[in-house]
Amino acid sequence: MAKVSAYELISDMSREEFTRDQLMRALVNRGYSRPDDRIASLVREGSIIRLAKGWYASGAVFRRRPLHLRWLSNIMYVSCLSLSYALSYWGLIPEHAEAFTAITPLRGATFDTGAGRFIYLQVPDAAFGPGRVIADAKDITGLEERFFIAGPDKALADLVWSDKRVKIPVDWSSYLFEDIRLERRSIEKMDPAAMLGYARIYGSRKLASLASWLSEKGGA
What is the end-to-end Cα distance of the chain in Å, rounded? Predict the structure, then answer.
């Protein structure tokens, strides 16, 4: 059997991001009796990159479009983007997020890949669904990327709940504006009632305190 080129194999994929099962099927359909060996060689030569367990993406030289990393962060591990990444996405902190941070009902995990770093924080099941929205973004080719991301209030709630530096009593002005560099104007858009709801879901005195502070500051 003639060796099939990496370009031909990657062209068999419907997306730039694909599962090991999809790649295995493509290789078997191309006549490979030892597909695992071919996958290993594709990774070694950089034709594909390994992401999380069971997930791969095309190498840079073969890509027809940019990787949809936000969609990928949702799909390769049950999750919703939140925490620092979501705060950056909504323009609430000035820094560009260096990792795709997300919450998950599964065990926490971190994946360092050739496409970026993906950090998953485990939250209680009851805290996973509330406050998430579906966002849409178009890549440079005009293709749409859709993904789950926490709204501004929920992203902040997740961050505060998970931040072990925050202990009652809290100097919220110092923490929000100095420690995490939240934009001051964003406070006016925060919803104290929503934050109190997240406090109840998490059973968190910290979030209840934050909700009270937001109310005093005249949040939405």
Answer: 66
